[in-house]
Design brief:
about 290 residues, two-stranded antiparallel sheet, ABC transporter involved in vitamin B12 uptake, BtuC, membrane, transmembrane helix, globular, about 5% strand, mainly alpha
Length: about 290
């Protein structure tokens, strides 16, 4: 596969995984949680590096997942004490991210780990960091990891689709019929953390947030059915990856930034043209009613 092909494939895998998970985030009205976790995983990554002094390996994934779950637990704890949900997210998000930034500035030293890298990612380097797989040959390490994460996300969502649906739309009903709502919440936070961590090194925090929230928000404008919304969200993620890459080539600018920008364009198109919730449909509705 060509250099451009690997970059687009990597971003597309991010778009599909984030689109599936992001649909549930949007429905649960937890969009800001994506922003929080995508930044606070930095603390887990830095902590794992300080313990092992290595920039790659399963320990980085474990550290970031622990940081993501810690974020969810602290936010829930503050909320249970009477702090508003948005305020809880803001306090935990900024505090843990700030600790991660301070640790990078004071403890990491000359290692290739910096704030710019965490925000924008290094997707241009993805095709060069390869690993060898039996029967397949050499593939970028990020493609392999993101493929595994996508399989895990698909299994979790398809296997517990009814539970996700009920806990997202009516948690009280879900609890009344015996579904462990709290457990499902933390399992979902684990999925968000794993998806975020897998995409974090390749595309950076900005694109992770964009892919988690914007395609899902755009898909929400087109349909009222969860399964279709998830499919559309994943498709929008792929379209944003392809369009964003060629925008970056055209303007000679950041690939991750251009892909995030492409998700915004897709949302604007959806906001204007969707048949039920779009601006055009809203403007036409009174005219159709009066006739």
């Amino acid at each position: 596969m060509s250099y451009a092909g690997w970059i687009i494939l990597t971003a597309s895998l991010v778009g599909i995984s984030c689109g599936l998970v992001g649909s549930l985030l949007v429905l649960r009205r937890m969009a800001m949680m994506a922003d929080a976790i995508s930044h606070t995983v930095l603390l887990g990554i830095v902590t794992a590096f300080l313990i092992t002094r290595e920039l790659s390996g399963i320990h980085m994934l474990i550290g970031a997942i622990v940081a993501g779950l810690l974020t969810a637990i602290l936010i829930q704890w503050l909320h249970s004490l009477g702090v508003q949900q948005e305020a809880s997210i803001g306090v935990v998000f900024t505090s843990l991210f700030a600790v991660g930034v301070v640790l990078i500035a004071t403890k990491v030293g000359n290692a290739h780990l910096d704030v710019q890298h965490t925000l924008m990612g290094e997707i241009t380097f993805i095709p060069w960091e390869k690993m060898s797989l039996p029967w397949i040959g050499e593939v970028p390490e990020a493609v392999f990891i993101l493929s595994i994460v996508l399989v895990v996300v698909l299994i979790a969502i398809i296997g517990f689709f009814k539970e996700w649906k009920l806990t997202s739309f009516d948690p009280a009903l879900a609890a009344s019929i015996g579904i462990p709502v709290v457990l499902m919440h933390y399992v979902f936070m684990g999925l968000v953390s794993v998806t975020t961590v897998a995409a974090f090194d390749a595309v950076g925090a900005i694109m992770v947030v964009a892919m988690l929230i914007t395609p899902a928000s755009a898909a929400y404008l087109w349909t009222d059915r969860l399964a279709i919304m998830m499919g559309l969200s994943g498709a929008f993620g792929i379209i944003a990856a392809v369009a964003g890459y060629y925008i970056a080539v055209w303007l000679d600018t950041s690939i991750s930034g251009s892909m995030a920008f492409a998700t915004g364009l897709l949302f604007m198109i959806s906001f204007i043209a969707s048949p039920k919730h779009g601006i055009v449909a809203r403007l036409r509705r009174p005219t159709l009613t009066s006739t």
